[in-house]
Write a structure and sequence with these properties.
The complex is a heterodimer. By secondary structure, chain A is an all-beta fold. In chain A, strand 6 and strand 7 (70-75) form a beta hairpin. In chain A, 0% of the residues lie in helices and 43% in strands. The model of chain A has no long low-confidence stretch (mean pLDDT 92). Chain A is globular. Chain A has a 5-stranded mixed sheet, with no helix packed on it. Chain A contains no helices and 9 strands. Chain A has strands at residues 9-13, 18-23, 32-38, 45-50, 55-56, 61-64, 70-75, 84-91, 109-114. Chain B is mostly beta strands. Chain B is 0% helix and 49% strand. Chain B is built from no helices and 11 strands. In chain B, the strands form 2 sheets. In chain B, strands 2, 4, 5, 6, 9, 10 and 11 form a 7-stranded mixed sheet that branches. Chain B has a 4-stranded antiparallel sheet with strand order 1-3-8-7, with no helix packed on it. Chain B is globular and about 40 Å long. The chains are: A mainly beta, B mainly beta. The A-B interface holds A 30-32, 34, 38, 42-46, 49, 51, 87, 91-96, 99-107 and B 4, 31, 33, 35, 42-45, 48, 50, 55-56, 58, 91, 93, 98-102, 104-110.
């Protein structure tokens, strides 16, 4: 799987927007950009994913650079419940040829939310 | 909201003993997975399962590990002879379909396995 680079940690004040960056300069044309998060002592939780266009859902927004070499997860109003490790993962699906079913988790970005 | 459920939440076992971790995936999902996370480390893929057979496995998933879907609802991970280094959180996950990049996986809350 293509590699992603994320900051080890970030801080945000409660009720402010948070922009979590991810660099993936070796992304291939068939890679989807996925974001998951892991709250303390819980399993990973799906947040959002996209291929080329920006995406919005009830949890967050995903902004994808035009060259797809970077992306940003946007939490519009951070709450204490958003304190978690956020993982940016590239998925090369098996139907594209050499892809895989697995999600390859890195170290992610640990987001702290300050009340 | 449908969820993946795992039992037990915590399992303590003696080294060398067999252990079975159980999962109930979301009912209309077709793909099932096991991941593990050793304390303080990354989440690691173990195995994926579809149509009653393993579709992919990692180097971690050696002969000591096996998976089974014994009925229409359960998905189990068996470790035949546990070692101290098997102590970890084990997460089950499921997805409707994972052949394209355009689907997501849903994870359970995990089983903490402690081998003593």
């Amino acid at each position: 799987d293509a590699k992603t680079t994320q900051p080890n940690s970030m801080e945000s004040n409660e009720e402010e927007p948070v922009h979590l960056p991810c660099n993936h300069s070796t992304i291939s044309g068939t890679d989807y950009i996925h974001w998951y998060r892991q709250l303390p002592s819980q399993g990973p939780e799906y947040v959002i994913h996209g291929l080329t266009s920006n995406v919005n859902n009830r949890m967050a927004s995903l902004a994808i650079a035009e060259d797809r070499k970077s992306s940003t997860l946007i939490l519009h109003r951070a709450t204490l419940r958003d304190a978690a490790v956020y993982y940016c993962i590239l998925r090369d699906p098996p139907l594209s040829g050499a892809g895989s079913y697995q999600l390859t988790f890195g170290k992610g970005t640990k987001l702290s939310v300050i009340p | 909201e449908p969820e993946v459920t795992q039992t037990p939440s915590h399992q303590v076992t003696q080294m060398g003993q067999e252990v079975i971790l159980r999962c109930v995936p979301i009912s209309n999902h077709l793909y099932f997975y096991w991941y593990r996370q050793i304390l303080g480390q990354k989440v690691e893929f173990l195995v994926s399962f579809y149509n009653n057979e393993i579709s992919e496995k990692s180097e971690i998933f050696d002969d000591q590990f096996s998976v089974e879907r014994p009925d229409g609802s359960n998905f189990t991970l068996k470790i035949r002879s546990t070692k101290l280094e098997d102590s970890a959180m084990y997460f089950c996950a499921s997805s409707v379909f994972f052949g394209t990049g355009n689907t997501e996986a849903f994870f359970g809350q995990g089983t903490r396995l402690t081998v003593v």
